[in-house]
Fold:
Amino acid sequence: MTPLWIALQFLTRLPVRLAGMPTPQQMGRSLLFYPLVGAVIGGFLFVAIHLLDGAPVPLQAALLLTLWVGLTGALHLDGLADSADAWMGGFGDRERTLAIMKDPRSGPVAVVVLVLLLLLKFTALLALLEQDDHLVLLMAPVLGRGALLALFLYTPYVRPGGLGDALKTHLPRSSATLALAVTTLLGLLLGGFWVMMAVAGVFLWLRRMMLQRLGGTTGDTAGALLEVIECAVLLAAALQVS
Structure:
């Protein structure tokens, strides 16, 4: 069970403690459990919406989004901010883009992108909650983390020696393919065809951008991918029920 605890510790702020330093093989296998961690996050959101029953819907949406960000420690939002700054400030240059990603400071582009993404998530949540569509609260975190599994499975990692490099190098490909197939099937059953089309379209578009600019992915671009995928799931689901 160590790979699951590694995934929970890395992707959430839940009080998970490891008995010792994980091996590279355990790190790689932890990727297999990313969709399951998404289900854990979705479970918290699903319980929260029932506890908030009776509160004004806009307040429910705001509190759910706050809980969502809190459970992840804004880890992937940070990646989105760094990626946005780097993409605009890199001017198409690979090395400049990678250098900007290492800068912990956030510029105005990062702030604007974060505000817009959170606004879109909040608005989509509001529309879904008004229609009593709570299943998406389980689905979006799962598909977002399933997208990370797909990204590391099919995309080069461009920072040798980094955490992502260890994850990709020791990821068991056959098990990862099976886990990804199960996640995709669940997405089709629970979300429907158009939601999965949105996920696939956004994934392929962002992966193409990464390959063209960097030749692969980094931890920051992976976090950005997750956030945009989650937002796409919420928007596609909201448009389906409208």
User: Anything to note?
Assistant: Residues 108-130 form the longest helix (23 residues). The CA atoms of residues 56 and 130 lie 10 Å apart.
